[in-house]
Amino acid sequence: MTSHVKLWKDRVGLVDYDTQIKEVRCQLADQLKVLDLQLEQKSQQLQDLTDYLRRRGEIENEYARSLDKLAERFTSRIKRKEPSSHSVAKVWLALLSQTRQESRDHNGLSESCSNFLIQPLTHCLEYTQRLAKKSKDICSQLQDGLLKVTTELQTAWRTYYQYHSDYVCAEGKLKEAEKQEEKQKQSAAKKLERLIEKRQGKVQEINLKCIKARNDYLINLGAANASMNKYYFQDISTLIDCADVGYHQTLSRVMQAYLSRRWRTQKNLSTGLQQLQGVVSGLEQSQDRDLLLRDNYNSFSLPLRFTYQPHDGDQVSEVSGECEMRCELETRLKQIQTRLKAVTLETEEASKNMSAAQCSLLESVADDDLEPGGGGSCPDDGTENQTVKPSVARRRANLQEMENLYITRVKEYLVGSSLVSKLQAKHDLLKVAVEKGITSAFLTQKHRSMRVRKNHSSTSLMHNHKLFSGDMLSFLQASGQQIPIVVESCIRFINLNGLHHEGIFRVPGSQMEVNNLRDAFERGEDPLAEQRYDLDSVAGVLKLYFRVLENPLFPIDSTDQLLEYAQIINEAERAAQLKMVISSYPEPVIIVMRYLFAFLHHVSQYSDENMMQPYNLAVCFGPSLVRGARDDDVVTLQAQINSLVKSIILQHESIYPNQSEVQGPVYEKLRFKTMSSADSSTGMSAGQTRAERPRANSSGSIDQTRLTCGPAGGSITSGGKLMLQIPIGPQFKARRAPSPGLVRRE
Question: What are the record keywords, sorted (predicted)?
Answer without folding.
Answer: Coiled coil
